[in-house]
Specification:
Length: about 650
Amino acid sequence: MYQGGKNTFTLNFDSDQLSGAPITISFTGQPSGVSIASLSGTDRGTRDSEVAVAIAVPPGVYPVTTTATATTNGESVTATAVVQVRVDPLPKPSVDVVFVLDVTSSMQPAIDGVRDGIKAFAEGLDPERIDFRIGLVAFRDWLNGEPSEVLKFGKEGEAFTTDSVEFKRQVSRLIASGGGDIPESSLDAICEAAELSFRPKATKVLLLITDAPPKLPDMRIRSVKEAEKILRERHIDQLHIVANPDERPGDRRIRNIYERLWGGPTGQFFDLQQISTGRDSFNRLLPELSRMIATAATAARATDARLSSAPPPAALAATQGLQSSRAYDARAGGRLLAAISCWTAAITAGISLALAAIQYLSLNRRPPPTAVLLGLAGGAIAGLIGGAVGQGLFALAPSSSVVGVMFRVVGWSALGALAGGGLAFVVPNLRKSHGVVGGAIGGGVGALGFSIASGIGLGDTIGRVAGAVILGFFIGLMVALVEAILRRAWLEVRFGGGETITVNLGPEPVKVGGDGRQCAVWVRGAAPVALRYWIRDGKVVCDDLANGGERLAANGDRWQAGGVEVIVRTASGSTPARGSPVAEPVVREARPQAKPVLPPQPAAPITAKPVASPQAAAKPVASPTVTKTPSKTISGYTCPECGSGVDKPVGVCPHCGAMY
């Protein structure tokens, strides 16, 4: 600000996180005499405030602390910034004065008066208080072949000077002569003076001195109205007139003509006849005019250093979240990454648990506690990693761009891929590649769901919820579809009443029997473990514990367990090659029957490897039973065949070689 002046400034703030809480902005640290109005409001955007400074405040730069305060959820939050208030000395008013002087033969006294009085005129403007420049346009009669003359000053030939001595020297060269008839080219000269190179912020003053009326029409100007329009368009502030008021006593036509020029500028009329009666009359008039001009210029001086327009909002370094359309401070990128990772961990933990539960419920079983814990833990770990990877990818491009939208989809797809891959540790016999492909597709569709939900005005919160639901739904759906399309073998289990379920086959044995704790397919009234199916070396193996042990199974082979029929299905529909994985057995393959029947007994007992089971333990086998000393492990699982400790609930016993 200038001393004794004021200014305005603009604040820009974003208060999305405050949920409409009132914000108060105050200022401290400014010197005495500087006042800044406090601000308040709830809406985000810009606020304008005014700062004023007393005339006595010394010029200088003063730090001021700006503090924004709000209370939300019972907690007071603040943000501060230090700004600078600069107090500038009160500027000098600037004035550009042009003498428009008639130099025809009758005007020598006026020429001498301007020449001799210019020093007093300059002193009246007071160079210590007023920044002034002076110039002069001398005119006669254009139509009489006497063009006007603009005095030039300095080496550059400028139309203005600040040197009153140089101005006096140039005026001394003027000699009154010519003029022809009485009217002179005063209006042409006034308009020529108005078009000189005035300073934009200076008070623009013209001082006409003539003893004749204007020539109408003249070489350029055709009427007083035309001249008045030019003065207004050139923003001339003052036009003072020193002229004879009339051609004859009592006739005021000359004065009336010139006063019509004040439709643009303002000014005063001085009677040249009265001024010309004394030798020092111009010496008295010019100081009076200069004081009048200085007073008017000081009053018009701008004390407000106002900005032409509000500055643009500060360009803060910002980033965005994978599951949000809001901008966050880039300095909080680590916290944002952690928050998103925790959010995605919660989502994928819920998805994994839900899919595992659906898997067990589809088999008419309740998920055991171990499956619940494994689903939660596996999903959470996959979500932590997936969220970090997805946010890292998304942060590489601005969300407002097409690339940003693509990266959001890619980030969600990466999250879904890791979540789907994590399901392979929860869902039995789900191939990791199938989970990754299905999860990636589901994540991409979930990203589109979030974009649509937040884009139609539902907001980020609903968008995140919708995105999570869509993400979970499509991860499960796509994993199931991919698995259904790409799976190699599965069981088709037919219960009574027309109920049929399918169970994927893989390296982990799928047990069918009456023990609900051990068996994936529970059958009322069947042996605790009647059948076991798995894939070994690309072949489906069936261990019929109640009727003969292991054998290779082909597409369409059927077994009966209690009241349930189990049918082997393979994607190729082919019959397995004999030999591996069962060493040189003679396998009599089961034939489809019109009604469910028990599979036929194998042609020969299995001799490649002894198999022990609770049902077959008492039956003789071709090779001796392998006996191992039972051992225990800290996992708490034991092999039901030999009683040794094992590391997981299902698999191959490392001690006796039996499948459990």
